[in-house]
Amino acid sequence: MNLHALLRKRAAEDRPLRIGLIGAGKFGSMFLAQARLTPGFHVAGIADLAPERARRSLIGVGWLDSLFAARDIDEALAKGTTWLTDDAETLFRCGAIEVMIDATGHPAAGIRHARLAREHGKHIVMVNVEADALAGPLLAAEAEQAGLVYSLAYGDQPALICEMVDWARTCGFPMVAAGKGTKYLPDYHSLTPDGVWDRYGISAEDAAAGGMNPQMFNSFMDGTKSAIEMAAVANATGLTPAPDGLAFPPVAVDDLATALRPSGEGGCLHHKGQVEVVSSLARDGRELDGDLRWGVYVVFEAPSEYARRCFGEYGLATDPSGRYAAMYKPYHLIGLELGISVAYAGLLGQATGAARGWQGDVVAVAKRDLESGEVLDGEGGFTVWGKLMPATDSLRVGGLPLGLAQGLRLDRPVAEGTALTWDDVSVDESDAAVACRREMERRFAPASANAAE
Question: For residue 168, how many other CB atoms are within 10 A of its CB?
Fold first, then answer.
């Protein structure tokens, strides 16, 4: 609990933690809104494909023109201001920058940036959970081998879930389930960007005013983002998906411990130690009273009769037996909280969650009947959604990773609801993202998958 004191010390010594940010979209802008108010932080450079858009974003979150008037990175460092550029690699080459943030949301870019961070000795905070779901185990291992931090982003739900899992385990409580809430109905898997705002619950005008990208936000609605985030949690914590992936059971906060216990004990889980996402909607579309749409949770078990009794004495919401209890956080603040990861990485050399193995994968599934010759448009688009699978199952069927399902041309038709495979598309094996993914599969293939081969 001493991050603020350490940052104030850095500020007093006139050696702030120097930061580079790639991507000034919604998440990046939310971070920038707080970074200028955080003692000991200096955002030395911001890279965005559209610097003028980044400039507008900065003004929109309260930055004065004088704060980002630097002509180059050297002037930014000398004057304590910020340089805007469209060349991210320049920030990696800057020796003074200690922590880089990838907030692009583009899997291939995330892989490239993680490897540039390793090459140039930077810690990296990976807001880009898409890249983490695609190849996080390998990227985290490469950073660790170089003595650097590769971290999930605090404020995003995976890092918050990892924190709660760590809390429960450190307290000696066996894990039963962990995950997040979302708004979900089964027919959402076929949603496209054209209809996302009605289902999301805001107007197109308000979405545009908030800088919200319809394809990105459609991935929240069609189940893809939930799959990506739960893959990240599984790979960071060792918890595992159910064989059929996410079930999205409708569960209110007071019912978490009762619903999220093994099916043999009256719950909906396939097994203990499972990742799962709960829906804020009943299957008939009614909003649940006390839903967890914006939050995260853990369900854990009393390891003894004494602990079970303590659960009751201190008012925990438990299942009828009193053995299973839940803790939850009702909200997450996205980029407004990202400074926690930056401070952990830069000051303590620690990650707020990072992949340690390969437990979960996200495979592209056809949203509709797809024809040979169609080009896939990736996460949140019109052609595919992402389904969470155990990594062993993904390898066994040759599932096409969702993170690569953009810009690829189909070699044959795929029926609606069918998981795509590598054999369904034309793939350039020399592509850097494809090669990274293939290397990750070789190095981190679960033992049971190797045995099956």
Answer: 19
Instruction: Please name the residues in contact with 36: beta carbons below 8 A apart, sequence gap of 6 or more.
Output: 43, 62, 63, 67
- On whether the CB atoms of residues 200 and 217 are closer than 8 A, the answer is yes
Domain-located, residue 302: yes
Q: What total number of domains does the chain contain?
A: 3
Q: Same structural domain for residues 175 and 127?
A: no
Please give the torsion angle defined by the CA atoms of residues 315, 320, 326 and 328, in that order, rounded to the nearest 10 degrees.
Answer: -80
Are 291 and 389 part of one and the same domain? no
Rounded to whole angstroms, the Cα distance separating 134 from 228 reads 9
CA dihedral 381, 383, 388, 394 (to 10 degrees): -140
Residue 437 and residue 401: Cα distance in Å, rounded? 9
Per-residue pLDDT reduced to its tens digit, 99-134: 999 999 999 999 999 999 999 999 999 999 999 999
Provide the 10 A C-beta neighbour count for residue 135. 29
Secondary structure tally for the chain: helices H, strands E? 18, 14
CATH code, domain with 411: 3.90.1210.10
Asked if residue 389 and residue 307 are part of one domain, the reply reads no
Task: Give yes or no: residues 17 and 115 share one domain.
Answer: yes
Which is nearest to 182 in space by CA: 338, 291, 335, 328? 291
Length of the chain, in residues: 453
Q: CA separation (Å) from 45 to 110, 379, 447?
A: 17, 28, 43
Place of tokens 């034309």: 426
Can you name the residues that pair with 325 across neighbouring β-strands?
300, 318
**Crossing angle for the helix pair 432-444 and 129-145, nearest 10 degrees?**
70
Biggest CA pair distance of the chain: 65
Same-domain check for residues 168 and 277? yes
Q: pTM above the 0.90 mark? A: yes
Considering the domain architecture, whether residues 385 and 321 belong to the same structural domain is answered as no
Note the pLDDT tens digit of each residue in 62-107: 998 888 889 999 999 999 999 999 999 999 999 999 999 999 999 9
Contact 345, 125 (CB under 8 A): yes
Give the CATH number, domain containing residue 49: 3.40.50.720
**Of 1, 90, 91, 86, the residue nearest 42 (C-alpha):** 91
Strand 175-182 to 384-390 pairing: unpaired
**What range defines the domain where residue 39 resides?**
3-154+336-348
336-381 tens-digit pLDDT: 999 999 999 999 999 999 999 999 999 999 999 999 999 999 999 9
Q: Report the alpha-carbon angle 257-246-156, nearest 5.
A: 80
* 227: nearest Cα among 334, 342, 130: 130
